[in-house]
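[Solved] Which block belongs to which protein?

Original post:
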Amino acid sequence: MKVGILALQGDVGEHARVLADLGADPIEVRAPEELAGIDALVLPGGESTTMSMLLESSGLFDPIADRLAGGMPAFGTCAGMILLATEVLDGRRDQRCFGAIELSVRRNAFGRQVDSFESDLDVSDVVGGPMRAVFIRAPVVALAGEGVDVLATVAVGGAPTPVVCRQGSVLVAAFHPELAGDWRLHELFLSNVGSGGDGPAR
């Protein structure tokens, strides 16, 4: 299984190591021609406005949008979730999103870098107990569409707020699963890529 990792900025190496350890073939994607032959794409954490500008300057935005529209599976973490969403409520006026999952999101919703935190999450379709989640300048889901499955939430202002969501072949997380030593969310993603469905993580 060849899994591309958007390698313009962000946690590229961490995702590559996890994917390789799980038996996938990670391919770093920096140019449109490097999309050829990949089965799925990971969009890592980083700085979403910078990544958005680099997607445009590299010529990658439209080719990735075409692949996503054609059903290519994708996994977005933190900034990657923002890029895959339908709407960024506090982004730049010219900021484009792929619209691959029906979410409206807000950037840096939990505060600045010093407000980063960890939490144990119960994630639907992931077996083996709670998952440790690392939130670093994380986005928050303000609105999820009717076709979106919410797999995990955290309390924001006393209300449960989605932080892991899936719609079809697109999976997103507001945190950094590659940093906590718990790879079950990557396993869930790869099992869906391999089966074309919604199989549970091992």
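(Second protein starts here: sequence line, then its structure tokens.)
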Amino acid sequence: MTKPTSSPVRATTQEFLEIEDIKEDLIILKNGSVALVLETAAVNFGLLSEEEQDSLIYAYASLLNSLSFPLQVSILSRRMDISSYIELIGNVEQNQTNPVMKERLQRYREFILSIVKENKVLEKKFYLCIPFSALELGVKSALGGKSKLPFPKDYIISRAKTSLFPKRDHLLRQLSRIGLKGRQLTTQELVELFFNVYNPTNTGEKLAETTGYTAPMVESIGRISS
């Protein structure tokens, strides 16, 4: 029979995540790699004319052909909570004195409720992730599993910015040719994004400003820095 250990086994959340830190609007991984994330919108391709569709296809092909670096496209779908919107319509309907407008608001509210009942209302967000590999730092292997960064964090960030910022600017220019606007996610937005990915809710959570944190977001079980 195996004798129990004197101290309990304690694993930390951080051990199961590849993220070492999120700093200066960049994601730093444990192996020294870095990632920059852009958020962009979508185009309703089906509503465009045939000429507009052809033009968009050529512009997208031009974007792909112009890439000389890896690019990851991620789509995040989340069920939306529209109860506050339905409540707003109901309040406007009750305060409406025009009988015609009151009836139209009532029909519109019932229409929205029928859609929600039959289908899930989803919010989709589109992200473009530009990576900076640890191999570019001279590290022999970019595989995970290391418990310590290969170089000081400030040095990694400096090298990553030199590589990532020109790629970011190029991608933003190419997106504008398609008629899309893109922007780089801030540290606050990145923290909230990953928090909601690992802690999914109907509406998503807003966190306190990251400038108030003095240590990594998660250190060990039962210890959340603030």
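Accepted answer:
You had them paired correctly. Confirming on the second one: The first strand starts at residue 19 and ends at 23.
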